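Hi R.,

Here are the chain sequences for the assembly we discussed:
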Amino acid sequence: MKLIPLILLFTLTTLLYAEIIVVTNKNSDINNLTKQSIKYLYLAKVNKINDIRIKPFLSKDKKLHERFINNIIDKDIEQYSSYWARLVFTGREAIPRRLSFKEIKQKLNEKNTIIYIDKKDMNKNWKIIYEK
Amino acid sequence: MKNKSINFFKKLVKYYNSLSILKKFLIPSMTGFMFFLLFYLYILSNTTYMKKTIYQINKETIPIYETIYNNEFLLQKISFELHSAVVAKELDWVKKTNTYANTIQKSLQNLKSTTFKNRIFEIEKAFNEYYIEASELSEDLIKDNNTYDYIHIKTLLVVNKYNKILELFKSTREIIKGDIKNEVTLIYSTSSRVLFDSSYAFILWLFLSSLGLYYIYKDMSSRIEQIVEEAENISQGKANFHKRLSSISTDELGLIVNSINTFISKLEKNHEDLEVAKNDIKRFIADTVHQIRTPLSSILMNAEMIRHLQKDESFTSYIDSIDASINMLSNSYEDLSYITSSDSIKYNPNYLSLSEMLEKRIEFFETVCKMNLKEIESSIDANIYAYINIVECERIIDNNIANAIKYAEIEKPIYINLYKSKNSDKIILEFRSFAKEIKNKNKIFEKNYREEESKRGLGLGLNIVKNICDKYNILYKASYKDKQNIFTYTFNKILNDRINLN
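And here is the predicted structure of the full complex:
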């Protein structure tokens, strides 16, 4: 009887914190990326991996975004915003576009564009290049 | 064109000839001065240009460069401050960047009057656009907590504006650097050119002025030489009275040349008068000589006859006196006769016995010696021959004996020697007499020269001797040794086969 609340909590947590994956068009030249590579791409430290120009996008889903920043980029949201503000004001890079899921679907039709999504939203036209 | 050049050159030469000596020598200096003046203007224009360029660099280019550099720094400061404001979420900090923005705007305002005004306007516009966008973005980021939808577009705009302004700053700095480099290079090349041109101009001026001075010097010296030569000719009586000195210039030398030409003209007239007088005198002497010849021969013969025919011893001294006088007169007569006839009669040389000739002439002067209380002691080698005209040989011997009798101390011997030199094949004829030493042994052979003015004579004897010696290359010399005046004549030896032929 005592296990029921625990099971419910686990199920809720799993639902709330669904697995984040980084995806791209299935025809993209990239097949997988390390966490470090993804970090570098989202911090605009590089824009190419193995000579392939990669365009990262952000999600408009604030929670997903925050989870991605916290878990994959290893920064809190303030740090990430501050980091980008510095890049913007020093003219180095603009903040990546934020996309709704609908926009994500459209954008991922393009090769070599990447974005993080919930694994449950995976589409057959995409491929996972990183999974935590 | 060619004729014009020739005419111009002629005019130039005419002008040069019309100048005084001072002005002629001033030509190179004045030309050099004019040249220097032009060159001064050239250097002045170049240095003025360099000065203006340096002023431009100091006054405008470098301040613009500094302003741009400072503005770049301020821009970075603004971006840093905006970033800090976003991080700190402090709207006030965004407003504080106005100070930096105002400084940039003010500094750009000051540069609007410079040659870079178009670019400054562009920078100002780009900066204002950036600053507005960046400030707004900062405020939006702070207010909306980084979550608003169009952040990507805004940040893209700010990045582009920032990069644009940065690129404008950078390109402006590059342009200014390029301008400074070009201007410094231009100053360097101008100064190098001025330096090279100065050296070249100096060498050219030195060469041309030296050439000019040399030409003027040669012109002057040749004309002075001509004047000196003509003056010397006049002084030596060799002037060509039919020739005049050329005078093309009107300077001081030209005036001297004109004076000399006038002088020569007057001399020519006097010379013509003198020539007439000389010819008259010559004719008179010739006539006189001719008139004297017959009576003198008659006197000589009759005196000889009297000496032989009269037996009264008491007349002997008178007859000797007459005889001596006639002989001396005869000597003078022969001198005169030779002088008046030497330029009209050709005295051809013959091989004659100098020994016999000398014996005969000593005999001729025997009575004269006796009457002058002098005695000739001769030492004559036999069979010595000379290739000389008999009259001219007689003039050499007679004049030397007559002079010895005239100037030698009384009751002292006069030595006459004729011998062949032991050291060479030369023949030496020597006249020695005890007398006062001849003061000027070189001048003694000159025409009309007398050692003692008190002793009257024609002053022609030794000059006749000298001319004859010159004619036959006979060396003549007057010397003094053992209280004796010695006149030595050195004849070249004649080969025996020549003597035999005659």
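The CA atoms of residues 36 and 73 of chain A lie 8 Å apart. Chain A touches chain B at residues 60, 62, 77, 81-82, 84-86, 88-98 (CB under 8 Å).

Let me know if anything looks off.

Best,
T.
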